[in-house]
Request: fold
Amino acid sequence: MGGLTPEASFYATPEVTESGWATVKRHPLSAIDSYGFALLMTEAFNGCLITTDFIGQAKSIPPSMNQSYKKLMQQNPKSRLSVSHFREQGKRRGGFFESPLIKLSEGVESLGLMSDGGREEFLSELYAASTDFPEEYFKIKVLPELLKSVEFGGGGPKVFAAVMKIGASLLDEEYNARLTPVIVRLFSNPDRAIRVCLLDHLPYMIDHLPQKLVNDKIFPHMV
Reply:
């Protein structure tokens, strides 16, 4: 039992395997999700499951997560920890979600809500962590949020400087698709601080900007 899709029974909860989906009605709604989330963790840290023998093994699960992980996989559905409670445990002070990567990810998502002081502190942490995480993380996760902050969230010159730092690692196609449109719009921005910042960083971006674009879209705003 467990479903009609291939290998569905492999990922089914013990109670569904034993009694079918009808048993779900007799247990907490979160029980199925808790078990599924634990299986996702198992594969995230160990690779794809090959046999059911690997289910529930905490071999590669971070030690700080072990206890909560095992509670997600309790045989008794009524005893399983819900995913929301798992998240709450991780976010407590000193919890397993208190890590530089998660702190950076949450910080960049709320950049537009920060005070000037908070934004400066975050940017300092961002620069300090620039070599700690994969380059793709900064391109995919951080850069879009920084661009939104510069254009719409009052990020200002300091955030734009961070954009230029990450932008230096982009290929020409990526640069033209992700940064060039924003740069063109910023040159039409009347904010003097932004325009001065753009001019200061012009040497770093000019090789990425087509000459026709500079003549038609940027130069008119500079005269």
In short: The chain is about 60% helix and 0% strand. Residues 91 and 98 are 6 Å apart (CA to CA). The longest helix spans residues 135-152. The mean pLDDT is 88.
